[in-house]
Amino acid sequence: MASHALFDEDSDLPPVEELPTQAYFIIKQDVTLDINFREKRIDGTTDIILVVFDDKLEHVDLDAAQCDIDTKHITVAELREAHGSIVEGPKRRTGAEYNDPYDALRPPENYNWTAEHHDLRRIRARRLFQNRATDVPAEDREFKGCTPAYGSLKGKVIDTDAKADLSEEDKLRDMTVVCSGFLVEESTDPKDERKRLMTFEPEKKTSVQKLGFAVGPFEHVDVSSEFRSEEDEIKLGISALRVHAYCLPRRAEWVRNTCIAMTMAADHFSWSFAKYPFGNFKLIFLEDMVEDTVALHSMAFASNRLLYPEDIIDTEFDTTRKLVYTLAYQWTGINMIPNTRNDIWISIGMAHFMTELFMKRLCGNNEHRFRMKTMSDHLVEIDIERPSLYDLGSSLHLGESEIEFMHLKSSLVFFILDKRLNKASSGHNLMRILAKLLTKVQIESSDKASILKTPDFRTRCEKAAKCSLETFWDQWIYASGAPRFDVKARFNKKRLCVELTLNQIQHQIVKKPELQKADFMRLIKERRNQTPLGEVQPVFSGSMTIRIHEADGTPYEHIIEIKEDAARATKFEIPYNTKYKRLKRTRRMKEKLTGAAANADAQGETEQDALTVSLGDGLSTPEEQAKWEIIDWDPETERKMDQESYEWIRIDADFEWVAAMKHTLEPYMYVSQLQQDRDVVAQQDAILYLATGPLHPIASGFLVKTIMDRRYFHGIRTMAAAALTRQSNIKDLPMLGLRQLILAYRDMFCYENSNQPRPNDFSDKQQYKVRCAIVQAIAEVRDANTHRCPLDARQFVLDQLLYNNNEKNPISDHHWIALLVKTLATSMIPSKKDEWVERQRKLKDDAEDGFLEKAIEQIERVLRRDEWTYSYHNIWTIAGLDAKQRLMKAEVIPKNLLDFAHLLVLVLTTDRSPHVRSKLIEALVQGLAAIALGEHAKPVEKEESSMDLDDPLLVVQDSEKEIEARQEMFARRQNLDSALTALRKEMDETYANDQRHYRTALRKALDHQGLTRTEIESLLDVAAMMLEEASTWILTLQLPKAWKAERSAQATHDRDGAETIKASLTATTTSPSRGNTRASSIGTSAPPPPPKPASFSAPKEVLAPAKPVKLPTGSAPKRPFDDSDDDEPMAAKRTKTSTPQPIIPSAPGRKRKMITLKTKNPGRLAVILGQKPSAPRRTSLPGMAPKKEKEPTPEGVSAGIPPKHNRKPLPIGGVTGDSARKPLPGSGDPVRKPLPAGGASMSPPPPPPEKKSMKINTNTARASPKPLSNGTSGSPAPATPLSASGRPKIKIVRKSTNPANGGSSQSPPAP
């Protein structure tokens, strides 16, 4: 398929020319800022010290944007060394030129661009949207020079101060300045006592993008002194890091609760890796940040969204991890810098590795391994057609999705690298390597030591581990994708070994995934940026640990090596070590229940007896099994289990691979692995199999046992609850999983035999997470026939919301109520639309209607409650509105939606929060992606063929139209070009009525001055997705208006339906100093014009010679068009006379001017210009047969059309009878005078009244016909008004201003 126009906007343009490397290097920059809060203005000056490599360098290019620079007061001085000190030479002013690069985001002046001109807008600003392809490495910049991005400030060659200007109201608050570096001096401005001068200097040389400051009425919280004990303070000594937090008023308690782990993290990093490289660490919580955190030099900005009080437990783990990462990034990303953009992955990966080690210490090993396993499975799914980790650094500017992918993959690569180094070097892991590296940077304090390079980092790891990492680097750093293994195991009795076959199938399974809404904008940006996509590796190599749990229950580990040159399918023979039979766990459990195990406990359990006690061994009594509907293995399966030589096999037991494993083990082996393996990763693999395996009541029983056993990690229990949802559709036991989920919830959280929950108690956080997971699983149960959640399950969720009681709970239930609202809406939405189900749903059902009414009432109650009892970050309002829009989208409740797309784009120009604007753009893009992918496409109606009616036995499954619609839908979900083409088609057809609102809203948003570069770039992508490119645009020129012409208003009231044409004339004056102003009066009635002779040639015996027209003295004005009514014919041209034109020698010569006519009807404009009249404008002369196809126009002869040679001459003596000419409409004289021929004479018209402006009527003078014998005119007046399609008239009113008399108008010429 051809490429979409969105990707070809600048394909025919030359590439953006990058600025060459400049022969200078900036070594220092001092900035002085004056902050004025009253006027919301920042003024400042800067001193830049640079080293010039070329003595012939004439000018330097610096980067500056979104500021006003006084280029007239830029000075240059030369620094030289004299007697061991730096001496500054005399300052001299230099010429400079500044062009703000962000001006390209706005349309050019006088260009009236709309949203359809998105391609021109992008071409104009493409230098801003395109990142540099090449850059000078950090290690060579002091020798080769700088590479400015814009070079907007061009100057000829030749630590931060912050001032707070306080108003009277702000004097009550103490404004605090928090800046990178340390405070050097603080004083009062001697010129203004209201100003405070605070001087900061950074501890080390740092690039400008890592410096920051914040000014505001901050409250200070000394985190380190409040949460560090005296013993730890003495133990750390000078290595103790001081952590300070700053927040806006009335949030200090939230800051203390949020930063409770920061001191512990700082001590952990100082002990495990190296001393903190700066003096202290400052954490500032600000409003309306787009990102959650931004790491800067010795400080970090954090959003207020991360703050949470003591009674909120839902966000504490994620928030703590984000804040700790900003602290770890001080060592790896601020104190150390990547050499190029391709080396950024090292800084990010090291910071995540340090963060995860601390979170492992804080939350435990199970939490750490469970999280890494979850991240690993997610990476395997999304790392398809993505750039490699090394190439990804040059694409981070494309958006948040690229940054998130970088954080995910770099963290996992460092995790598995640590595992492999630890195994290869017998304990010399990555933690020790990083500690040596960071300590070396602290000791040397040189720029070379602080630069991170990918080859150097690999050499350091190889030197420490004493093994080659070339293969690892090629597969995980320079390539993309992840391995997928198909594992097959078979026990060979003859050779007494386990034959294990590993087949890498990533090249077979990895296909192009379907387009997703969340990835739609990312794919567009990557395609536009031509991001290199990595290829799938055919073979991943390395060592792997295989753990076989043999018949006696003893695990045996074996290390195999997958070589790079091996085939995709590799076979390994693993020796078998035991000959004992497998223990019969079922029999041992029965003996334990009967009391036999009690004697064993008294005498001491042996190793084999300990194996019988495993996880998930509850609910084993006959009464419990009957209540919970749990069944045990059948005898045939038990016999098969007894014959197995091993219980289960673990592939990659040490978690050294980020890979997907497809096993062919028996189901009971996964159950044994779930119950007897203590590794949380092994348990997670077993749950994943049960969640996707066959539906069976035995699997359902083991899942509910896992939920009820509190010895399991809470993540395994939540996964078991989610997996139990599928077990509700077992063939012979319908809704078995639902009943077990409800029983589990009632047993742990409700009163006996009821749905009413006990009062909330969230002190046990693991139980709270399991409780949330069970409610979500119940809401997601669907009947396989009706595709709807059963009414009992929906009522159960509603009861939890209705009877929620949080009076005695010290923990807030804000997130819990929001979760119940969300799950309630989920339970009411069917999973699939079916025609029969839809018909059944529309039938009257009192139970369904009653439940719907109660559910909507509870959602509205939560929304009202948030109005007077504020929830945490208004989470109740967010959950309620989200639930209502989902129900409307699923057509469960009537739609009452405003034009969300219109409102979203309008809010972009009015909301002051950058975070809100970014989320609105994200929501708008996902909405358009849903339309492009066909989520809202109407189904194709089935056509009834004539063959079906003729032959009742012939069944046509799909018509040709349905097949084409299916093919189109498939293409939309697989191909990006097809999806974008379908989106424009949908917008033109389905949403055509709203297109005008979308265009207007997008134009206002694109022209708004307050949007950032990233927001405008995203909006341009949105406009390109929705709208076709415009081929024309309007250009407005600011020129003096010399002429203005428009059609006069209708003089008579009986001309209904007549069109009004307005034409504007623009004259380009050659000399602006003329001072002539011209205007036109609209709608004023004109006096009768003076008589003018006819312009057409008539026989001498018919027409009398025309009299010469007497012209006034002075300069002859240009003859304007006539301003008479539409029903009159066009005036004839003025006859040439021999009267000479008087010439005034003193008057300057008038130059020719170009006049442009603009009208909406080109045909009418052609008629005005007399080029090609569309209809005859002359009345048929006497004796001429009228044309049949056109009605004769009852008007006079039009000027400018020469008479035909075959037309009969006018009769001498006037016109009589039916051939008489019609009178002028509106004239009081019903008898028209004859043409000026023979004895007829022209009656002189009345003199026109005086007026200030000159007005010339160019109509032909007409002669009235002779009156008939009965005293009437020769031709009666028409009974109906004339058509408005006649030749229109335009009026030109010219005013000339005389500078001598102050602008008096020229008087009209005398008749």
UniProtKB/TrEMBL annotation:
Superkingdom field: Eukaryota
SUPFAM superfamilies hit by this protein: Leukotriene A4 hydrolase N-terminal domain, Metalloproteases ('zincins'), catalytic domain
TM stretches of this protein: none
Annotated Pfam families: TAF2_3rd (PF25316), TPR_TAF2_C (PF25577)
Biased composition (Polar residues): 1065-1078, 1255-1275, 1295-1311
Cellular localization per UniProt: Nucleus
Gene Ontology biological-process entries: transcription initiation at RNA polymerase II promoter
Keywords: Nucleus, Transcription, Transcription regulation
Signal sequence coordinates: none
Domain Transcription initiation factor TFIID subunit 2 Ig-like: 480-662
Positions of the UniProt region annotated as Disordered: 1065-1311
Major localisation: nucleus
Transcription initiation factor TFIID subunit 2 TPR repeats domain span: 668-900
GO cellular component annotations of the record: transcription factor TFIID complex
Molecular function via GO: chromatin binding; RNA polymerase II general transcription initiation factor activity; transcription cis-regulatory region binding
Gene3D superfamilies xrefs: Neutral Protease Domain 2
PANTHER family attached to this UniProt entry: TRANSCRIPTION INITIATION FACTOR TFIID, TRANSCRIPTION INITIATION FACTOR TFIID SUBUNIT 2
Similarity comment text for this entry: Belongs to the TAF2 family.
Function: Functions as a component of the DNA-binding general transcription factor complex TFIID. Binding of TFIID to a promoter (with or without TATA element) is the initial step in pre-initiation complex (PIC) formation. TFIID plays a key role in the regulation of gene expression by RNA polymerase II through different activities such as transcription activator interaction, core promoter recognition and selectivity, TFIIA and TFIIB interaction, chromatin modification (histone acetylation by TAF1), facilitation of DNA opening and initiation of transcription.
Stated name of the protein: Transcription initiation factor TFIID subunit 2
Organism: Emericellopsis cladophorae
